[in-house]
Specification:
- By secondary structure, the protein is mainly beta.
- It has one domain: Metal Binding Protein, Guanine Nucleotide Exchange Factor, Chain A, CATH 2.170.150.70.
- Helix content is about 10%, strand content about 35%.
- The chain is built from 3 helices and 12 strands; from the N terminus they run αβββββαββββββαβ.
- The strands form 4 sheets. The protein has a 5-stranded antiparallel sheet, with no helix packed on it.
- It is globular, with a radius of gyration of 14 Å.
- It starts with a helix and ends in a 10-residue tail after the last strand.
- The site of zinc ion (ZN) has 9 residues, from loops.
Length: about 140
């Protein structure tokens, strides 16, 4: 099984811009799991959020924003998350061991420059500012909207 990360690993598939306010300060997208153990801040603006129907993503109900690894800061208590790698093991979804929210996925490839954060962990006002694209990860590996 192909992973979403393999598909979304190229910059051309993931146009991002770095968010800078008129004051020159970096704008951050902040998200956290329900209990607050796992927090992330993102300084890249994904072009879109991806709603994937593959066997894993449809269960998670995630809205993925694919961003460069170096634009994301994740904080959590040591040993407090679980990682799950499916199929070809190119990525692992990371879930809070306390409240069960999946906050992001990481590349398991040595040179993986992209990861995704789950924008469902952000305020709904943040999500409403993005275009949401439906991706057919279950079958055709194409956007279907
Ligand atoms: Zn939690």
């Amino acid at each position: 099984m192909l992973s979403a990360l393999r598909y979304f690993a190229r910059e051309s598939d993931n146009p991002c811009t770095i968010a800078v306010l008129s004051t020159g300060v970096l704008k951050m997208y902040d998200g956290k799991c329900h209990c607050g153990n796992v927090c992330f801040s993102v300084t890249a603006i994904p072009e879109k959020l991806v709603d994937c129907n593959c066997s894993l993503c449809r269960r998670l109900g995630a809205l993925w924003g694919h961003v460069p690894v170096n634009s994301v800061t994740v904080t959590c208590a040591p040993g407090s998350t679980t990682k799950y790698a499916q199929g070809d093991k190119t990525l692992a979804v990371v879930t809070c061991g306390h409240c069960g929210c999946t906050t992001h996925y990481e590349s398991l490839q040595k040179d993986g420059e992209y990861m995704a954060v789950n924008f469902r962990m952000c305020d709904p006002d943040v999500v409403s500012g993005f275009t949401i694209r439906k991706f057919d990860g279950a079958d055709s590996w194409a956007f279907i909207d």
